[in-house]
Amino acid sequence: MSTQTIARGLEGVLFTESAMCFIDGQAGRLYYGGYKIQDLAEHSTFEEVSFLLLHGHLPSKLELQGFSEKLVSLRTLPPVLLESMRRYPKDAHPMSALRTAVSELGMLDADEDNVGPEALYEKSLSLIAKFATIVAANKRLREGLDPIAPRADLSHAANFLYMSTGKEPSAEETKLMDVALILQAEHGFNASTFTAVAAYSTQTDIYSAITAGVSSLKGPRHGGANEAVMKMIGEIGSVENVSSWLENLVASKGRVMGMGHRVYKAYDPRAGVLEKYASIVAEKHGHSKEYAILKEVERQAGAIYNPKGIYPNVDFYSGVVYKDLGYDLEYFTPIFAVARISGWTGHILEYTKLDNRLLRPDAAYIGQLDLPYVPLEQR
Ligand code: ACO
After folding, report:
1. Would the CB of 231 count as within 6 Å of ligand 1?
2. pTM as predicted
3. Does residue 21 have its Cβ closer than 6 Å to ligand 1?
4. Can you spell out the DSSP letters for 137-197?
5. Where do the domains of the chain lie?
6. Going by CA atoms, what residue is nearest to atom 38 of ligand 1?
7. For the domain 18-219+332-354, what is the CATH code?
8. Helix axis angle, 61-73 to 117-142, nearest 10°
9. Which of 4, 223, 296, 350 is the most buried (most CB within 10 A)?
10. 322 with 171: CB under 8 angstroms?
C-alpha cells in the first residue's frame, strides 16, 4: 500500500503561481487581474479584458486602441482554411469544427513552431481574433450560407454577431455579447486551461496546445454544460413538470446541468450577472418559457442541493442569452471558446514567462510486479 496522498481530480493541488484570476469559491467571488468580475462585466469590453489577461493591467486609451486595431488586422481567415471548412461534414459538431480549424491554422502558419516571446504573443492575438471568425463562418456554412467577411469598424463582440447573423447588432445586443464573452474569458486552471498549459509545457506549438484546450472544453462536465442545460429545459418541457422531473432525477442520482462547481460552493458570481441579463431578455419577449423553467429549477433544486454547496454555475443562464442573440444550441460551447481563448493564451504566456516547466504528475502504482511472462500460445 502506498503512503502517498492522492489528490483525486487534482483538487486543491497548486502547481504554479498566477496573477490572472482569483476565485473565492466559498464566498462566490471572482476577480480578473484584481478587478471584480461584476465591474468588468458592467463597464469594460472583451478587448479590454483580453488586454488585462495578456498584460496584467487594464489598458490606457492608447494601449486599447493599438490592441483593438491589431486584433482587427488579424480577423481574416486564410482562404485555404475557409475552403477546407466548406468541406467539413454539415452535421459535425461546431466544437469539432473549431478543433479541426485551429489545428489547420497551425499547419497553415509557416512559423508554427516559433516559441519566441514575440511570436507567441502575435500568435495569441491572432487566435483571439480568429476564433470568432471561425465560429461565425462555421455557423453560416452549417446554415447553407456563405461566410461573412469581418468588418474593421465593429468591436470584437459586434463583429462576431455581425459575422454570425449577417445583421449589424444593436448596442444592447453588442453589450449582451460583450458581457457573455467577459464572463467566460478566464477562470483559473479549469480543465481546458490546464490541458492547454500542460500541452504547451512540452514546448509543442501554441496551435496544438489550444487544440487540446478546445477538446477539453467540449466535454459536458465543462464547457458542454450550457448545451446540456438547454437539453434539460427541453426534457422538462414546462414549469409544472419541474417537480416530477426533479423527483426522478434525485431518485436516479442524476445531475442538474448548470449546477455545481468544483471550486464554487456558493452562487457562481457569473451566474448572478447572467441571470440579470437573462431576465432582461425574458422580459423583452414578454415571456420566456426557458427562463421560467430555469427559475423554477433553481428554486426547487436549490432547496435540495444548496445545503450541499451546489448552486447555479455560469452555464445555467447563458443559453437563454445566446438563444436570444440568434445562436442554436450547438453554438453555446463554441461561444464559450471564443471567450476562453483569451484565458488560455494569457495563461500560456504567463506560464512561459515563469519557466514553462514540463507538467508531469504521477500516480500511485497499485498493479502487480515481477509476473512471470507466459508466451501467447500458452495463455
Ligand atoms: N446535480 C446534482 N448533484 C450534483 C451536481 C449536480 N449538478 N453536482 C455535483 N453533485 C453531487 C454529486 O452527485 C456528488 O454526490 P455524491 O457525493 O452523493 O456522489 C457530489 O455532488 C460531488 O460531486 P463531484 O462530481 O465529485 O463534484 P465535482 O466538484 O467534481 O463537481 C461538476 C463539479 C463536475 C461541475 C459537477 O457539479 C457537475 O457535474 N455539474 C453538472 C455539469 C455542469 O454544470 N458543468 C459545468 C461546470 S462549470 C464550467 O465548466 C464552466
Report:
1. no
2. 0.93
3. no
4. HHHHHHTT-------TTS-HHHHHHHHHHSSPPPHHHHHHHHHHHHHHS--SS-HHHHHHH
5. 18-219+332-354, 225-324
6. 260
7. 1.10.580.10
8. 60
9. 223
10. no
Catalytically active residues, by annotation: 261, 315
Q: What is the CATH number of domain 225-324?
A: 1.10.230.10
Q: How many Å apart are CA 305 and CA 329, to the nearest integer?
A: 26
Q: Give the closest residue (by CA) to ligand 1 atom 12.
A: 255
CB contact set of 274 (below 8 Å; sequence gap of 6+): 179, 180, 183, 314, 316, 317, 318, 321
> What would the pLDDT profile of 207-232 be if each residue is shown by its tens digit?
999 999 999 999 988 888 888 999 99
The minimum-distance atom of ligand 1 relative to the CA of 253 is 13
> By alpha-carbon position, which residue is closest to atom 19 of ligand 1?
253
255 lines ligand 1 (CB under 6 A): yes
- The answer to whether residue 12 scores a pLDDT higher than 90 is no
Which ipTM was obtained for this model? 0.96
